[in-house]
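lol ok so funny story. i was supposed to be doing the assay writeup but got distracted and ended up predicting the structure for this chain instead. priorities right. anyway since i did it might as well share w the group, maybe its usefull for someone
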Amino acid sequence: MVGENVTENVRTIKNIPKVLSSLPGVPIPELLDVRGEVYMPRQPFLKLNEERVEKRGDRKFANPRNAAAGSLRQLDPRVTARRSLALFAYGIGTGALDTHNDSMDRLEAYGFTTTEGRTKVATIEEANALIARHGERRKSLGYDTDGVVVKVNAVWQQNILGATGKDPRWAMAYKFPPEQAETTLRDIVIQVGRTGVLTPTAVLDPVKLSGSTISRATLHNEDFIAEKDIRIGDRVIINKAAEIIPEVLRVAVEKRTGEEKVFHMPAECPECGWPVVRKNGEAAVRCTNPHCPALGREGLIHFTSRDAMNIDGCGPAVLLQLQERNLVKDPSDLYLVTADDLMELDRMGAKSANNLVRAIAASKENSLDKLLFALGIRHVGAKVARTLAMKYQTMDALMEATQEELAQIPDIGPVIAESVVTYFGDPGNQDYIERLKELGLNMKMLGTAASNENHPFYGKTMVFTGTLPTLDRATAQTMAQEVGAKVTSSVSKKTDYVVAGADPGSKYTKAQSLGVTILDEAAFRRLLENKDMQ
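and the output, tada:
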């Protein structure tokens, strides 16, 4: 329903069974909803990076997680097949057995690979001991891991515990202490982002850390530098936040020589020379030039990114070349680029050029929420863009909205409202939107979320609990959100509907006591399809 279809690529992963193994006395289910994670083992990752640099002159992947994600999204399944991906199955959605452990045993019997070392324990003390053992052996594994997940085994107890908007309350991830390394901070350079924020970055003596060579680390802002008293020339201890993003943990103050230099943020933007400013109450320092070249470059990267217009094959290296050749100054110019233009770029053949032209053309059909996010309006992330698109349905209607009107929308508020009105009030931005219209970009909200405000779930607060007969909870929640509902995890006087399945637990009881309307799956589906509105 949402995302990309990577079925053909997944078929190339060797440890995913193409046919389920049959069990004596246990019929193969009509639907098996397997949850799992595709990963890249350590040795194939190192080999892939070596080939990218030596044979093709490409950049290395930062870590196996990025490499696995990129490999799974390849347009050509043959490329995915060469990447030696594997899958760990970690659960069953629809059709789960009475306990998580039983479900995992069943998956193994069907032919799936589950995580090694999976163990059922009776106490927290046993869980802690198991975590410690895994922590000691993690380096000997053939893949990278950053922790252990502890799960409640009984599904009926999982249903009672429920979930927040993002995470189940019946599972907890214990993260291992990240690996650390010591190196010298040689310099601090400034990078300017798409919103004009100046971000200091540490230039480090290259050092090996968690399987990759680190030579740079973000320093966030000047307050971060001051708080940790980071100076140019310091010996610093670094790690990878969440095993991915290099960061400076602390300074080895005892190793200072007196030659270290205190860093000061520049008074002018290093990209365009305009003055920079830091507003009261903000940690960010911003360039004051609305036409700073860095904003254009970073804005292009953001516009084409996955959560925005999702133009596959249009990465930073391609965009930089298009800018250098004066073919693209702002995102609207992308829609005028031809395959012949693209074939002039480095490492861009006819097939790749034609694929990219098709991807750019296809992005014109994206829904309004994607385009709003792609515009890079300050404070408007993907979620806010979707809220605005669902409320106003068209770009024209949104551009006419007042600040007072916008501030009344749930999850918007005065700061975002001011930012949106300021953006659309700018004549240059108005011309830019008009240019995108003329180029054929869609300016309307598409799909079920474009339903009108008469839908029975529009603007209603809904809670889902228990096991539904045919839908898993995440899918049901998405279906409700698509028509304008607000899904929460707890029942209160403000709740309009509770959708309950088997073993609904305390939420069901509370809904009864508060007089909240309770729906089963069948009633939920009827209302979703507007069949009770005749």
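DSSP finds 21 helices and 17 strands in the chain. The first strand starts at residue 34 and ends at 39.
back to the writeup now i swear
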